[in-house]
Amino acid sequence: MSVDTVSLTGWGRTAPTTAVRFRPRTYEEAAAVVRGRGPRGALARGLGRAPGDAAQNAGGSVLDMTGLDRVRALDEAAGTVRCDAGVTLDRLLRILLSRGLFLPVVPGTGRITVGGAIASDVHGPDHPRAGSLARYVDGLELLTADGEVRTVTPGTALFDATTGGLGLTGVILSATLRLKRVATPLVAVSTERATDLDDLLARFTAAGSDGTPYASAWIDLLARGGATGRGVLTRGEHAPPSVLPAHARRTMRAPRTVEPDRRPTGPLLPGGLLGRTAAALLNEVRYRSAPRARTGELRTTAAFFHASDALPDVNRLYGRAGLVRYRFTVGYGQEETLLRVVRRISVRRCPAFRAELQRFGAAGAGLLSFPVPGWTLAVDLPAALPGLGRFLDGLDDEVAAAGGRVCLAQDARMRPETAAAMYPGLGAFRELRAELDPTRAFRSDLARRLDL
Questions:
Q1: Using an 8 Å Cβ cutoff, are 175 and 82 in contact?
Q2: What is the pLDDT of residues 366-408, one digit of tens each?
Q3: Distant-in-sequence, close-in-space partners of 247: CB < 8 Å, separation ≥ 6
Q4: Which helix (H) or strand (E) covers residue 207, if one does?
Q5: Residue 367: Cβ-neighbour burial (10 angstroms; 0-12, 13-18, 19+)
Q6: pTM value > 0.90
Q7: 61-64 and 17-23 as β-strands: parallel, antiparallel, unpaired?
């Protein structure tokens, strides 16, 4: 097991802190780190794709889980897979697709680990139907504060605290996931432009009744006036063999291996390009180049679900200070709040290139899970924007007043009293954590900041 002292940030590259990083290769090595932790505690970390400080532990220990990356059992007949927490979704999906299987919930990036996905209880563009990932976890092995490994199953308080619990109940070592079957490795995609936010919400609502499972929209947050909230709605479903060209149907086989992702991972983009003028130009090009209406386009699963992974260093566009991701949700019936938030961002001329709108269905059982029925919007903003903290605090107040919440797993700046008001399960989470881990063996910068 290698050990070093490093400065760590989230994907947003804000608020770096220093920790001792351990790279365990076995469960026993991970347990030894937890037992030998110092006064600042320990925390599991995957690929560091949380935008904020959820995977940092200033002055403490951090377990880099990427060395625990074995797929231990794949039962194709039952449609289940058991794997280590350090397996990436990108790699797991390649293995599954080669066998006609797929994850029921796929978030917007494949460059996160299974353990990180469970600890964040991630959601995908089919949440109204599928829910979030915890629904498909049949069980997990959890390394707890006493250095022992527990088998945790759905329906227990510890399971509900761990799924969405941001690593604060222990170290997820492995998990068993239920899968679904897909006929082809392609997605049939429909795209349409919306002229403003009302039009976009109406198209979203209509799309929910046509049987297409996946739907998300990009919003132009620099458009103003009558075009405020204009955007592009993208919907998709797994393509049946019948929609493929004849030659593809004849030659299509389920390959036993799939080529790995060979997209570049080094620096691609110079820093600080995304000012207001550049962002407005990019948004205009993106909106105008989208088709007014198109159906039947075929995309690979990677191109549909993980398009942003094609530019792994896009976070550097936001300058040396990094980016802040603001993801919130408000319930159905609170569309006026959503419109006010969109309008406030637009009027302020925030250079927002990434802005994604999705719908949520029923909430899961996770005590700190983010999704609740309603609309969710995620926007990336340059951390160096003057007055950004005060501006986002004001948006927090709007969201909280509407009964909504801000995503903890992606947060970098929320106030503790705001988090407590937004998450009614926080009290029960604190009680269980105090009972299970009275010495606070598991800690993070996020947990300290928000008093989780």
A1: yes
A2: 999 999 999 999 999 999 999 999 999 999 999 999 999 999 9
A3: none
A4: helix 197-207
A5: buried
A6: yes
A7: parallel
